[in-house]
Amino acid sequence: MSVQELKFVPASEFKERSGAAVNDAHLRQSFRGAMDFLIGKRAAHFTDLAAFERQRVLAEQIRQYSLSRLPDLLDLLERRLTENGVQVHWAENAEQANRIIVDIAQRHATRLMVKGKSMVSEEVELNHALAAVGIEALESDMGEYIVQLDGEKPSHIIMPAIHKTKQQIARLFAEKVPGVSYTESVDELIGIGRGVLREKFMSAEIGLSGVNFAVAETGTLCLVENEGNGRMCTTVPAVHIAITGIEKVVEKLEHVPPLFGLLTRSATGQAVTTYFNMITGPRRAGEKDGPREMHLVLVDNGRTQAYRDQQMRATLQCIRCGACMNHCPVYTRIGGHAYGTTYPGPIGDIISPHMMGLAATHTLPTASTLCGACGEVCPVKIPIPDLLVRLRVEGQHDARPGHPALLGQGAAKSRLVDAIWAGWAALYTRPALYRAFGWLATRFRFLSPPTQGGWTASRTPLKPATQTLHQLMAQRQRR
After folding, report:
1. Nearest-angstrom CA–CA distance, 139 and 145
2. How far apart are CA 282 and CA 290, in angstroms?
3. How far is the C-alpha of 106 from the C-alpha of 189, rounded, in Å?
4. What average pLDDT does the segment 377-389 reach?
5. Can you tell me the distance from the alpha carbon of 86 to that of 218, in angstroms, rounded to the nearest whole number?
6. Tens digit of pLDDT for each residue in 182-230?
7. Which domain holds residue 60?
8. What's this model's pTM, rounded to 2 decimal places?
9. 42: Cβ–Cβ under 8 A, 6 or more apart, which residues?
10. How far apart are CA 126 and CA 241, in angstroms?
11. Is residue 354 within 8 Å of residue 315, measured between CB atoms?
12. Which of 46, 124, 233, 291 could form a disulfide with 116 if both were Cys (CB 3.0 to 4.6 A apart)?
């Protein structure tokens, strides 16, 4: 298994970016307001906590069952899709996925590809690969269109431009869209975006979409959306390419509604989305619309690493609702761009190390208070806090017996930290040495260093007390 490292924003600079985000009062205020709004909308749909827990258990069981049969279901999905006239491609990593799509585009002399929302296409950085061969890729989701226009990556997997104000978007449109005057009217701004995109739908040779659920039994690709752009991308251009991770497969159509109901309510607080598309193949004889050619690209890109580890496999249960981000006290203060990965927040902290390796991402699992909010709201019951702790351990240690090695394992290992913990263990397992240390610490407390690593970045320096606990207890007993 090989993994292509993301180039757009280096995850290794997480500390610097998160520090800058915390000091950006405007960004913190914007995110706090947006997250509170989404939390409130979600909570309004889950007033019966007992019922919500039953739904979560069912969704967890569906995802775990699907993953337990993943190889067989993927084989079945390929057979059914092929029978339906869809060409299926397999990509081990981002480079292969991009090469497959570029080859299809070049065979059709493509100049413009119009894209529905697809986090996997963001993950493999498809737009960069297409631009390298002279093909324009235009995002048609309004939030994605906005951040693409501004040269950014999405800051949230459901609401890509949630970090922007209407004033910022108004300035962006006035500067980047020809013939557009400055306006802060949301309706007018949406109308401007739609006007641009409507022309592109009609002139694009290829439409690309993501996949929310792939049903193996019928060879059906399900696509959830609110704007209609997904439906336009999958029906108007002559060629439709769908791209998805290998984990999105379920066995039967009856497995989709429980997941769909939890996805929409957890993501945007909607009972249902405006559109739910079910795609079973290209245009057939006698049909008046739809693509004449259809492809599905199934992407691994590190997912098999998570799959082969029994505990880490739970990562692949994710249905990309974003609820864990909305409730995370870290994400809500720094936003998505600070993470430097396609998937930010708690879910990104546990899935990015498989896609990019721990060498590039070992700081991300530490970007959590381990408060447990992400695990409590996850509609498919991913034990995110447990997986964060596990990845922290793997980042500090070499491969251990009984645990499959992770890419970049031990990247956070430090000889200094190992020496400190070895010294701590020696002190706390030898009573005489512990007492001697306590005696010295109380008498030479003035030698405590004023800076103590990450601790003093936001706290006062630690200094031993004038008396040890043993000494204080002894005085109390003498009284």
Report:
1. 5
2. 6
3. 34
4. 97
5. 12
6. 999 999 999 998 888 888 898 999 999 999 999 999 999 999 999 999 9
7. 11-304
8. 0.89
9. 265, 266, 269, 323, 326, 377
10. 12
11. yes
12. 233
Strand order in the sheet with 206-209: 87-91, 293-299, 239-245, 206-209, 112-115, 136-139
Instruction: Supply the CATH number for residue 37's domain.
Output: 3.40.50.10420
Tokens 């006007």 belong to residue: 195
Q: In the 8-state DSSP scheme, what is residue 220?
A: E
Domain count, the chain: 2
Residue 58 lies in a domain: yes
Residues 326/144, Cβ–Cβ less than 8 Å: no
Q: How far apart are CA 224 and CA 175, in angstroms?
A: 32
pLDDT grade, residue 11 (50/70/90)?
Answer: low
DSSP assignment of 322-389: -HHHHT-TTHHHH-SGGG-SSS-HHHHHHHHHHHH-HHHHTTGGGS----SHHHHH-TT---HHHHHH
Residue 227 lies in a domain: yes
DSSP-derived secondary structure for 423-465: HHHHHHT-HHHHHHHHHHHHHSGGG--S--GGGGGTSPPP---
Q: Look at residue 22 in the predicted model and tell me its pLDDT.
A: 87
**Residue 140: predicted pLDDT:** 93
In degrees and rounded to multiples of 5, residue 370 shows phi and psi of 55, 35
| Amino acid code (one letter) for 369 | T
- Over the chain, what is the mean pLDDT? 92
Of 304, 334, 353, which one is at a domain's C-terminal end? 304
Residues of the chain above pLDDT 70, percent: 97
Cβ(313)–Cβ(322) below 8 Å: no
Integer Cα distance of 56 and 58 in angstroms = 5
Distances (CA, A) of 4 to 95, 358, 391, 407, 473: 7, 13, 20, 12, 59
Residue 341 has pLDDT above 80, yes or no: yes
Q: Is 44 exposed, middle or buried (0-12, 13-18, 19+ CB in 10 A)?
A: exposed
Dihedral, 192, 195, 198, 199 alpha carbons, nearest 10: -120
C-alpha–C-alpha distance, residues 315 and 247, integer Å: 10
Q: Domain boundary at 261, 283, 304, which?
A: 304
If you average pLDDT over residues 67-96, what whole number do you get? 98
Instruction: Indicate whether 281 pLDDT > 60.
Output: yes
User: Please, which pLDDT band fits residue 26 given cuts at 50, 70 and 90?
Assistant: confident
Number of H helices, E strands in the chain: 22, 10
Instruction: Please check whether residue 112 lies inside any domain of the structure.
Output: yes
**With bands split at pLDDT 50, 70 and 90, how would you rate the model's confidence at 2?**
very low
CA atoms of 408 and 394, how far apart (whole Å) = 9
Is residue 68, in this structure, part of any structural domain at all? Answer: yes
